[in-house]
Amino acid sequence: MSSMRSLTFDAIIIGGGGSGLRAALELAKSGKKTAVLSKVFPTRSHTVSAQGGITCAIASADPNDDWRWHMYDTVKGGDYITDQEAAEYMCSEGPKAVFELEHMGLPFSRFDNGRIYQRPFGGQSKDFGKGGQAARTCAAADRTGHALLHTLYQNNLKNNTTFLNEWYAVDLVKNANGDVVGCISMDIETGEVVHVKAKATVLATGGAGRIYASTTNALINTGDGIGMALRAGFPMQDMEMWQFHPTGIHGAGVLVTEGCRGEGGYLINKDGERFMERYAPNAKDLAGRDVVARSMVMEMFEGRGCGENGDHVYLKLDHLGEDVLGKRLPGIVELSKTFAQVDPAKEPIPVVPTCHYMMGGIPTNVHGQAITQDADGNDKLVNGLFACGEAACVSVHGANRLGGNSLLDLVVFGRAAGMYIESALNDGVDYLAATDSDVEFAMSRINRWDESSGGESVPSLKAELQDVMQNAFGVFRQEDNMQEGVKKLADLRERINNAHLGDKSKAFNTARVEALELDNLMEVAEATAVSALERKESRGAHSRYDYPDRDDVNWLKHSLYFPVEKKLGKRDVNFTPKTVDTFEPKVRTY
Amino acid sequence: MSMLQVSVYRYNPETDSAPYMQEFQVDTQGRDLMVLNVLSMIKEQDSSMAYRRSCREGVCGSDGMNMNGKNGLACITPLSEVVKKGKLVLRPLPGLPVIRDLVVDMGVFYEQFERIQPYLQNDEPAPAIERLQSPEDRDKLDGLYECILCACCSTACPSFWWNPDKFVGPAGLLQAYRFLADSRDTATRERLADLEDPFSVFRCRGIMNCVAVCPKGLNPTRAIGKIREMLLANAT
């Protein structure tokens, strides 16, 4: 242990996607000694796959647009467990953050007047739901995430951010007081394990869609930050809330942007019927994603699915014409040809609801500070620990995220975390150093794998876990199925704790990385399962056959999963925005 | 059973004194899988197989490799496009140092990217909203900004193999032109001055391997031609 190298920074950011790079940029500009640790070269992060755009009231498509309308949509979209103070912050600060991106060089598409192009997306309205469909999603064709991530990486290069690329963060290091004071990390290229010390540790590790068998998420989305925080004993919020995106390509799981429907595309069943007109008479195909996904599943259940097995529906785009497709949706044309062997200018794309986004995560305030609860159930900040982006639950997405809000979330709250950490460092924040035994504790997991001498292999256990989640915790859920799922997960945890890492070599050992990722998938899956089982209502993305209605008496709350006890608690939703009146819960229709 | 014979370049610096090719048999069940799917099946047979991958849909640029002699992305290359006579040969991207198996050290590639100052420079004060840009000016960035830094092009370029330290290479030059072409960038003069030597741009011999392999269908040779024109116009 004494031979282990250590590195010391003011702040470390774990994750090189959008939120991590935005936080890093803020800190690099401040001159603080900052490093980004990323298990992949930053532009390989999953933000790169975001397509349709970043939703924000910049008043380009509509000069009268108002961030308060966007806030209303966001709160309603989240089925009223969105924290209103956080949604207010995101929607009001958003334009500043988007203009900054443009100034950094993001190649947004443009209107004729030279302003940023905005397209309609699901769940968007004018005038608090009374003024019809809004067009509020700022886009760079259908490659907005790629353009955004590269722009942020470029500007970090400009500001000389320190990157530890292809470094895998293994576990958090806590001191004797329970403060987070850095992490254990592995340099993947050499296999060297290093103790990285920091006064602020930011988890910007993104989502964990790979807990499901079918997902739009990159192979790297294994919930590493969630796993680390849970193993360190910190609670997770709203982990039952997983978004199933209506349009993943059938079979491949690859995402087809909601922007397709924003540009005028629509879903049809095997009879060619535009079925969303029945489920959401006003918004139709641009209802909330949870609503559209459920409607699609209903169509398939009732025998109106397409194809030999009736296991998908079609997304029709051919009526948009080759010009619109080529100009606004070129990436979709490419992906459809590659993964569905379909030219959308001629034929519809076979699509199916596919796991896409984790609304839950590490509870934080608007500064990205991680929150836990004291013995009396009051919020308590975790010293030294921050989270932003998909790994965090601030919570702006509540029970269902609106399209285009994830990119806004990650730049607004990445920036906010960076600004807060800068001021905290200026105030001289510092914590007790970790002792050798604290570090040894954080090493126990990687040591376990390195000492394993037999047991089951990682890929088969991973596949089994993904099947359990897919079957018991999908679009529709019910008690007995979930009970069974929880049991299977308990068994899987035991087997994963005894699984075998066959390859113990040092240099670029991706088998070791995948083994460490499997532990994180397990943590995320278990948190999801317990939370889903215990939330006995239907709200947003969490739909139960046995509790089909929303229960505002008991469940107008965040769920809070405590990993040590494996128990679910509750946390109050914030209903006190600072500058606008509270949006009171209403029946949610589109 | 329909077996595909796959021959993969192997090298582990801890145990191998030299690289070698290893043969695998993969049962594709007749499906037209992507090469990345085949690699993942091989990794289930032999967990020590190392390769990079992330998005598995051709936008992150992790899994550039040489497949039956041609560079491309494993995740969007169907077997039907590359397999010849029932055989698939996988090698790392050519010309870069190998770390392990199909994983190359991309350091020199990234250095050339960084060298061209790949970020917008504008010395005028930023407005309170976005900088305006006409759709026509924005169109000039199409075919440039989409680069995913996979290095398929630069590692297919003989000029880059020969002078990776002095010739920026097709990927870096495509990005150089992406900023030269941006109506919002005001550093054109400095950017051109930085490229005005016999190597940075002019080592391009118009071989066009870059165009032939780019998995995003981009055209670095055309971008390089535009930079040449700007350099020549600047010189006169």
UniProtKB/TrEMBL annotation, chain A:
Please give the biological process terms from Gene Ontology that the record holds: anaerobic respiration; electron transport chain; tricarboxylic acid cycle
Q: Which amino acids does the record list as binding substrate?
A: 245, 257, 356, 401
> Topology relative to the membrane, per the entry?
Peripheral membrane protein
Q: Does the keyword Transport apply?
A: yes
Please list the residue ranges annotated as the Fumarate reductase/succinate dehydrogenase flavoprotein-like C-terminal domain.
463-590
UniProt main location, coarse? membrane
Q: Which Pfam families match?
A: FAD_binding_2, Succ_DH_flav_C
Q: Which top-rank group of organisms is this from? A: Bacteria
Q: Which GO terms describe its molecular function?
A: electron transfer activity; flavin adenine dinucleotide binding; succinate dehydrogenase (quinone) activity
Tele-8alpha-FAD histidine occurs at 46
Q: Give the EC number(s) listed in the UniProt record.
A: 1.3.5.1
Q: How is the cofactor bound?
A: Flavinylated by SdhE, about 5% flavinylation occurs in the absence of SdhE.
Mind listing the UniProt keywords for this protein, alphabetically? Cell inner membrane, Cell membrane, Electron transport, FAD, Flavoprotein, Membrane, Oxidoreductase, Transport, Tricarboxylic acid cycle
A GO CC term? plasma membrane
Q: Which cofactor does it need?
A: FAD
Q: Where in the cell is it found?
A: Cell inner membrane
List the InterPro entries.
FAD-dep_OxRdtase_2_FAD-bd (IPR003953), FAD/NAD-bd_sf (IPR036188), FRD_SDH_FAD_BS (IPR003952), Fum_R/Succ_DH_flav-like_C_sf (IPR037099), Fum_Rdtase/Succ_DH_flav-like_C (IPR015939), SdhA/FrdA/AprA (IPR030664), Succ_DH/fumarate_Rdtase_cat_sf (IPR027477), Succ_DH_flav_su_fwd (IPR011281)
The FAD-dependent oxidoreductase 2 FAD-binding domain sits at 10-407
Binding site residues for FAD: 15-20, 38-53, 224, 390, 406-407
**Pathways per UniProt:** Carbohydrate metabolism; tricarboxylic acid cycle; fumarate from succinate (bacterial route): step 1/1
Protein function: Two distinct, membrane-bound, FAD-containing enzymes are responsible for the catalysis of fumarate and succinate interconversion; the fumarate reductase is used in anaerobic growth, and the succinate dehydrogenase is used in aerobic growth.
Protein name, as recorded: Succinate dehydrogenase flavoprotein subunit
The organism's taxonomy opens as: Bacteria, Pseudomonadati, Pseudomonadota, Gammaproteobacteria, Oceanospirillales
Automatic annotation (TrEMBL), chain B:
**Pathway this chain belongs to:** Carbohydrate metabolism; tricarboxylic acid cycle; fumarate from succinate (bacterial route): step 1/1
| Keyword Ribosomal protein in record | no
In terms of Pfam families, this protein maps to: Fer2_3, Fer4_17
Q: What is the lineage of its organism?
A: Bacteria, Pseudomonadati, Pseudomonadota, Gammaproteobacteria, Oceanospirillales
EC identifiers of the protein: 1.3.5.1
**Top-level enzyme category:** oxidoreductase
PANTHER family from the UniProt entry = SUCCINATE DEHYDROGENASE [UBIQUINONE] IRON-SULFUR SUBUNIT, MITOCHONDRIAL (PTHR11921:SF29), SUCCINATE DEHYDROGENASE IRON-SULFUR PROTEIN (PTHR11921)
Q: Which reaction does it catalyse?
A: a quinone + succinate = fumarate + a quinol
Which residues belong to any copy of the 4Fe-4S ferredoxin-type domain? 137-167
| GO MF term list | 2 iron, 2 sulfur cluster binding; 3 iron, 4 sulfur cluster binding; 4 iron, 4 sulfur cluster binding; electron transfer activity; metal ion binding; succinate dehydrogenase (quinone) activity
Keyword annotations from UniProtKB, A to Z: 2Fe-2S, 3Fe-4S, 4Fe-4S, Electron transport, Iron, Iron-sulfur, Metal-binding, Oxidoreductase, Transport, Tricarboxylic acid cycle
The cofactor required is: [3Fe-4S] cluster; [2Fe-2S] cluster; [4Fe-4S] cluster
One annotated GO biological process: tricarboxylic acid cycle
Describe the family membership recorded for this protein in Swiss-Prot or TrEMBL: Belongs to the succinate dehydrogenase/fumarate reductase iron-sulfur protein family.
Database matches in SUPFAM superfamilies:
2Fe-2S ferredoxin-like, alpha-helical ferredoxin
Q: What does this chain do?
A: Two distinct, membrane-bound, FAD-containing enzymes are responsible for the catalysis of fumarate and succinate interconversion; the fumarate reductase is used in anaerobic growth, and the succinate dehydrogenase is used in aerobic growth.
The reply to whether Electron transport figures as a keyword in the UniProt entry is yes
Record-given protein name? Succinate dehydrogenase iron-sulfur subunit
The organism of origin for this protein: Aidingimonas halophila
